[in-house]
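User: I'm new to structure prediction. If I give you an amino acid sequence, what do you actually give back? Let's try with this one:
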Amino acid sequence: MQVKLGFGAIPKPQYVFVSKEADHCWYMLSEDEKRIPIYERALTGAITKIEVNKKVETKFKVVEKNDLYVLADKPYIIRSGSESYFSKSLLLSLEVLTCEQLRSPLTISLSPGDSNVVFCKIYDPVTYRSIDVSWDEHKEIDWQAIGKKVSLKINSLPNSNQESIQISANTTPSEVHAVLIAQSDRYLAQLNWTPEQGREYLQQKYGKRSRLQLTDTEILDFIDYLQGKLAQNCQI
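Assistant: Good question. You get back a string of structure tokens that encode the predicted 3D arrangement of the chain. For your 236 residues, that looks like this:
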């Protein structure tokens, strides 16, 4: 991305919002909060970060949003409701992408559905091939677990400040669980927890004595807890 010298706009990320309208499906906001339609159907760039189930305060109440950070001609943040079809279809697509694919530019497109529904579809801008996902049984999907897995994968890529965690579309469920346990190993070591401390916490929280007995959702919850403990230690 080329840096323009001299006077210009404040260099801050541009938020992009999703909403199905008659002639467009996403928009930006001006300084006075007026909607600026975006008529293009797709945004191509490098995904650098994702924040899932982020609590955002609006004029009326606090709501949960998903923020996807995309570096293109400028930094963009695509913000959508955590429970929206766009967010859910985005997470499904991101879940099947390999770490290698996520290191390359991708095209995020909008696909209008019935009523006010907008779906997300991701393409490889080089091959023009779409990332195919199954929407079957989406009502039974554990979206919180998928969100945590996607966050862990994207936010742990080598171009971030965290260690790389290799989770790809070809990774088996048992391998994913092993990667998650390895991640918790690093946090436990940084906290200087003894095996006895770990077992005691698991017994109290989940009624289990070993991380091998935890479900993916539980091990992700445990990782969140350890990350929180590390953040508290940094603030002391």
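You can read the tokens as a compact description of the fold. Here is one thing that stands out. The radius of gyration is 20 Å.
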